[in-house]
């Protein structure tokens, strides 16, 4: 949002600049005509109106679509969340006030889903970002066929969630899956990856890690390549070895990028849905028999579309939205502090 | 001159933006129209009417060539089928479209687990088919399930799911058990607990790497389908925790879940398919529509090794209906097609293709399964076994939340006992909590 506002302000400003304050520059640069003289000629007014309104017209498609498919549903969901609404009788809504939210706060299922979202989020995001930095660091060296490596890194990201999850489900199969077969060689008893508490969360996280590590590595790599080489040069003159260079030059320089990836991954983790749903197979929206990997997204889907309680599902959706807002605020405070300390 | 060209550029650009925006919006709208198909009825060559049929899973109409036959009989009709694989994705979509009054197909399939919800909440959104057909064609209980309180018939019965026991003759032999289908049926006749007792015998000498059943849940579903009470009583009141049928089925399932006779698979999951291919379980309670599935998933290794015996009690699992939404723009044509598709002759053709069992008794006598299916199941008299079951199935009352309640019992309660080592009491309590959540209590 803020970025689009900035863009708006900028384009308006540049339009202003081109409009008449610097007619020479405008003519020279863009071959535009000098505005006709006379402040009240209709042409001039039309011209100014054109200059002011056009930028808005150009960006309007985004806002029209955002309004139709995001804002209106968002507000409608808020309205639903204050009512008792069943999927099978959408027109019979009874006012429920904050009952749906109150029910959520006392529901073990909701807290369990929140907890799972958090733990799966942590065990998928932290290793993912750390591995991504390491990979980016390796890719930053001069390598033979570096483009090939970069493309290879990005292929998991280009795979569909459904295809990836299907393959992982087979790998993690209890009976005859490749991972249990491998564990057997190391002398570990087979793990019931789908039904055990930590096993299932680990399995779901591993799908997320597999899909997103390469993507984050490429973002880090791009940022690394923007780090001036003389920083490394002076560090090596000071006698810093590769590891120390990584720790004291690369990581501090990457800080804004790291923050960006953390924010994006956090949002992704809060909305985690496709992987656990498909990993669960039939009745996957339960997230396991004890809801051991039911995330908030799954709980919402289960309530809304499987059980048909749309009012409660809407309340879950809004709770997720509020949680994301809180995360955003924490992130904002954190960024401000970081800027000050620099 | 110069300014005017520039301005016309602007106008063109603005127009392009506007066109893009409306194009995007219209794109979404026209998508809906396509799936409803009712709007482009006249768009086809020479005033052909296009009817759309919304189904889930595999109905077999296309596979049995019924659409082509119908289009030959009625050259002015063309038929398009919109298939959604999973019911749990299909049904919410249909519900919202019915209520929006647009976007529905001309014929909409309804699964038996959803029929009560359709009857009680969407009755006014479906055309009354009762006056257009001869109701006596169908099994009485099938019609009863699709009839509203004011006597409106909103769906015509397609298939039913009479139950049998499919078993691996070769594995039974190795385990030293009886392999003859009539003698086996006699061993467990009348009680699902006896079927489980045979399992205990099987496990004493089970061939390496094999179990007696695929899962405790499948035994539960089979046993539940044979009782007179499910989760709701006749008046639509939830009685699941007092229901005699549920209690009996639960107890049998608990015997399986706490023993070592279950392969602990989840039905319709990939590992379940692999179980068929590798022959890791010796029996499965099989409704008629599962016959084709078993044949397909077991492949060549199962050929002639599978056999079919009568189930302990007559039981039904699954089956569907065809309804015509009032939102259809071609109601008359759609009703005619639905009537034709569910007529006994056509149901017999679908049976011949994929063993979906008819809901019209007059078709029973003419049923002929595909020759290779008969050979695959050791020449078992499949038709006879299913027909006997279909005739004596008790009338069951379904409720609005029948499916989520069932899922709570099988995929939460039973699964916890079977796979997580919880006690039956803990499993029951977990299911109870889940059902409370389902019912919003």
Overview of this structure, please?
With 342 residues, chain A is mostly helical. Chain A has a domain at 108-341: MetI-like fold, CATH 1.10.3720.10. Chain A has 14 helices and 2 strands; from the N terminus they run H-H-H-E-E-H-H-H-H-H-H-H-H-H-H-H. Chain A has helices at residues 2-21, 23-30, 42-81, 99-105, 108-140, 146-158, 161-171, 178-186, 197-225, 229-237, 242-270, 274-279, 296-306, 310-341, and strands at residues 83-86, 89-95. In chain A, helix 5 runs parallel beside helix 9 (197-225) and helix 5 runs antiparallel to helix 11 (242-270). The longest helix of chain A has 40 residues, at 42-81. The radius of gyration of chain A is 27 Å and the shape is flat. The relative contact order of chain A is 0.11. By secondary structure, chain B is α/β, with parallel strands linked by helices. Chain B is built from 18 helices and 9 strands. In chain B, strands 1, 2, 3, 4, 5, 6, 7, 8 and 9 form a 9-stranded mixed sheet that branches. In chain B, strand 1, helix 2 and strand 2 (77-84) form a beta-alpha-beta unit. Classes of the chains: A mainly alpha (342), B alpha/beta (441). The interface between A and B is large, with 44 and 49 residues.
């Amino acid at each position: 949002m803020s970025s689009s506002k900035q863009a708006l302000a900028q384009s308006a400003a540049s339009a202003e600049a081109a409009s008449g304050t610097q007619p020479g520059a405008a003519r020279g640069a863009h071959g535009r005509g000098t505005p006709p003289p006379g402040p009240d000629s209709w042409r001039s007014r039309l011209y100014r109106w054109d200059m002011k309104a056009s930028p808005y017209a150009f960006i309007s498609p985004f806002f029209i679509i955002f309004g139709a498919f995001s804002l209106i549903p968002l507000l409608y969901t808020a309205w639903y969340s204050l009512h008792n609404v069943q999927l099978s009788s959408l027109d019979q809504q009874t006012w429920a006030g904050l009952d749906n939210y109150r029910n959520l706060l006392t529901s073990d299922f909701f807290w369990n889903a929140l907890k799972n979202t958090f733990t799966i989020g942590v065990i998928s995001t932290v290793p993912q970002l750390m591995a991504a930095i390491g990979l980016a660091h390796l890719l930053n060296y001069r390598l033979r066929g570096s483009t090939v490596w970069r493309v290879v890194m990005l292929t998991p990201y280009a795979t569909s969630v459904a295809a990836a999850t299907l393959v992982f489900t087979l790998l993690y199969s209890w009976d005859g899956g490749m991972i249990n077969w491998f564990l057997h060689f190391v002398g570990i008893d087979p793990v019931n990856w789908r039904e055990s508490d930590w096993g299932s969360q680990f399995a779901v996280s591993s799908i997320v890690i597999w899909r997103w590590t390469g993507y984050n590595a490429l973002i880090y790599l791009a940022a690394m390549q923007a780090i001036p080489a003389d920083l490394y040069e002076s560090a090596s003159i000071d006698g810093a070895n590769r590891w120390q260079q990584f720790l004291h030059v690369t990581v501090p320089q990457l800080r804004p990028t790291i923050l960006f990836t953390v924010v994006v991954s956090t949002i992704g983790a809060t909305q985690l849905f496709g992987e656990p749903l498909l990993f669960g197979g039939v009745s996957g929206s339960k997230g396991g028999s004890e809801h051991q990997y039911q995330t908030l997204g799954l709980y919402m889907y289960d309530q809304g579309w499987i059980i048909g309680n749309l009012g409660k599902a809407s309340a879950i959706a809004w709770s997720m939205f509020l949680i994301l807002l809180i995360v955003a605020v924490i992130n904002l405070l954190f960024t401000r502090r970081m800027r000050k300390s620099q | 001159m110069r300014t005017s060209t520039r301005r016309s550029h602007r106008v063109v650009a603005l127009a392009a933006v506007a066109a893009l925006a409306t194009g995007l919006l219209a794109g979404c709208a026209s998508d809906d129209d396509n799936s409803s198909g009712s709007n482009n009825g006249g768009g086809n060559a020479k005033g052909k009417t296009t009817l759309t049929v919304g189904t889930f899973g595999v109905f077999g109409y296309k596979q049995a060539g019924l659409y082509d036959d119908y289009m030959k009989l009625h050259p002015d009709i063309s038929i398009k089928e919109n298939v959604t694989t999973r019911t749990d994705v299909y049904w919410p979509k249909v519900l919202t479209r019915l209520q929006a009054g647009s976007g529905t197909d001309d014929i909409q399939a309804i699964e038996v687990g959803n029929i009560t919800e359709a009857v009680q909440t969407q009755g006014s959104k479906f055309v009354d088919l009762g006056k257009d057909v001869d109701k006596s064609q169908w099994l009485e209980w099938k019609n009863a399930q699709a009839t509203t309180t004011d006597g409106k018939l909103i769906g015509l019965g397609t298939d039913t799911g009479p139950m049998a026991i499919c078993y691996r003759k070769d594995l039974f032999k190795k385990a030293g058990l009886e392999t003859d289908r009539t003698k086996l049926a006699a061993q467990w006749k009348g009680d699902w607990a006896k079927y489980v007792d045979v399992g205990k015998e099987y496990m004493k000498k089970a061939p390496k790497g094999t179990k007696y059943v695929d899962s405790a849940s499948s035994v539960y579903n089979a046993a539940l389908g044979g009782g007179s009470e499910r989760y709701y009583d006749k008046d639509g009141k939830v009685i699941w925790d007092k229901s005699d049928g549920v209690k009996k089925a639960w107890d049998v399932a608990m015997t399986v879940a706490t023993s070592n006779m279950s392969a602990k698979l989840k039905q319709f999951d990939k590992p379940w398919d692999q179980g068929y291919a590798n022959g890791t379980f010796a029996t499965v309670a099989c409704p008629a529509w599962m016959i084709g599935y078993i044949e397909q998933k077991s492949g060549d290794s199962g050929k002639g090794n599978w056999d079919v015996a009568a189930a302990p009690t007559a039981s039904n699992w699954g089956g569907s209906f065809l309804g015509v939404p009032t939102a259809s723009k071609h109601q008359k044509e759609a009703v005619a097609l639905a009537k034709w598709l569910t007529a006994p002759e056509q149901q017999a053709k679908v049976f011949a293709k994929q063993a979906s069992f008819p809901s019209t008794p007059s078709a029973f006598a003419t049923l002929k399964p595909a020759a290779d299916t008969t050979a695959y199941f050791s020449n078992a008299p499949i038709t006879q076994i299913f027909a006997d079951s279909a005739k004596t199935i008790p009338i069951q009352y379904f409720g609005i939340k029948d499916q989520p309640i069932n899922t709570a019992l099988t995929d939460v309660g039973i699964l916890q006992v079977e796979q997580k080592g919880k006690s039956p009491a803990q499993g029951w309590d977990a299911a109870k909590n889940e059902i409370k959540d389902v019912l919003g209590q």
